[in-house]
Amino acid sequence: MFVQMRKMVVTEGNAEQVVKRFGGKGIIEEQEGFIDSTVMVKKVRRGDEEVIIMVRWESEKYWKQWEKSPAHIAGHKAKLGKPKPDYIVSSEGGLYEVETVKKAVEPVE
After folding, report:
1. What domain range includes position 83?
2. CB within 10 Å: which end of the chain, N or C, has fewer?
3. Considering the entire predicted model, what is its pTM?
């Protein structure tokens, strides 16, 4: 399994903007090898908010296929030259090869 992670820090009150953008229906769900996408918001009392987007793929091959797809490229081209939303403080990402996964064990009765 292959995972793409993105951490976005946004100004207070704007985490929901990122959740809507990455949590709504999109073309990524139709891509071969796509497993799922998870959007998480870090609990904070006040101040900047942190949103983590985790996208899981069956393999790096499928992630690369998505990255090079016309649909994905078109989405980025449409944003070319446009400023990023002013509520985004920072954004960083990483790519990970999953080595192990633990799952819950059914209790024996």
Report:
1. 2-97
2. C
3. 0.85
